[in-house]
Design brief:
This protein has 2 domains: 129 residues, 3-Layer(aba) Sandwich (Oxidized Rhodanese, domain 1), CATH 3.40.250; 120 residues, Oxidized Rhodanese, domain 1. Helix content is 30%, strand content 16%. The protein contains 11 helices and 13 strands. Strand 11, helix 10 and strand 12 form a beta-alpha-beta unit. Helix 5 packs across helix 10. It starts with a helix and ends with a strand.
Length: 297
């Protein structure tokens, strides 16, 4: 049931004819249309990254020049805690192997802009890579519009990617950030389904949610057509939960992937200035017996 719900919600996300139902986001430079991409497919300074969930889909056909990246490759164990974001030095090495330099324009797509895509884009924010955009509508719209598709692999030449500075702590929350947060200035937002948040379901040793976390299921941000809900409607929904742009917002889920979708919504759709993704999420928190966990809705 959980998997079915996630697949349904993902299938809705961004499947409509426009990325935003109404109300242009403050950071529209983070979204690129298919017309622009098709006109710029041959530009050498662009790297297209296919983040679909099954490499067999990539084999069957992908956007010309796109390199396949399995989202699992971005997640490493951290002192025994599974599935946290890989070290930035390793991420820089991975980008270099993909032929990406510091000034390369990265265009990311998945089926219909799944949270695998937003997780990679958040990782690029952590690294401090400035030039990335999301392909509006993903591969499904690209294919539906009969745009060019290939089965050929891109000819990539590895380069040295220089990260240039320390990881951006302004977009990544740690366990200590969550544990020591000031509830007057910081909101902790758990974006999992309500039954998992409540502790009725889950695969962890302890079930429930981080004490003090507010629940908002990430898929509520899109409507039945898959478009993001109007910006004013989103803003009102978040404000009703106490999630306002004057506060630091830490988003979490099970392992930081679904929460990256809300990270994108808050930071790039609504323009919130201080949004952090806690990639350790309940996966890390629940394993520490001394840290408080709550149940119930």
């Amino acid at each position: 049931m959980k998997r079915t719900l996630l697949v349904l919600a993902v299938g809705l996300a961004l499947a409509s004819s426009g990325l935003f139902a109404s109300g242009a986001p403050p950071a529209t430079e983070r979204v690129v249309g298919a017309d622009w991409l098709q006109a710029n497919l041959d530009r050498p300074e662009i790297r297209i990254v296919d983040m679909r969930g099954d490499i067999r889909d990539y084999w069957e056909g992908h956007i010309p020049g796109a390199v396949f990246l399995d989202s699992a490759a971005l997640r490493w164990p951290d002192r025994g805690v599974p599935s946290k974001l890989m070290p930035t030095a390793a991420l820089a090495l991975l980008l270099g192997e993909m032929g990406v330099r510091k000034n390369t324009q990265i265009v990311v797509y998945s089926e219909v802009n799944h949270y695998r895509a937003t997780y990679f884009m958040w990782a690029l924010d952590v690294l401090g890579h400035p030039n990335w955009v999301l392909l509006e509508g993903g591969f499904e719209r690209w294919k539906k519009e009969s745009r060019p598709v290939t089965q050929d692999y891109p000819a990539l030449k590895p380069v040295v990617y220089s990260a240039g500075r320390q990881p951006d702590a302004g977009v990544r929350a740690t366990l200590a950030d969550v544990r020591d947060r000031n509830s007057a200035t910081t909101v902790l937002l758990d974006v999992r389904q309500a039954d998992i948040y409540a502790g009725e379901k889950g695969s962890w040793k302890r079930k429930g949610h981080i004490k003090g976390a507010i629940n908002h299921f990430w898929a509520l941000d899109v409507d039945e057509t898959g478009a993001w809900r109007p910006a004013d409607e989103l803003r009102r929904a978040y404000e009703a939960l106490g999630v306002t742009p004057d506060k630091t917002v830490i988003v979490s889920c099970g392992q930081g992937q679904m929460s990256s979708h809300v990270y994108f919504t808050l930071k790039y759709v609504l323009g919130f200035p201080r949004v952090k993704n806690y990639d350790g999420s309940f996966n890390e928190w629940s394993a520490v017996a001394s840290l408080p966990v709550e149940t119930g809705k």
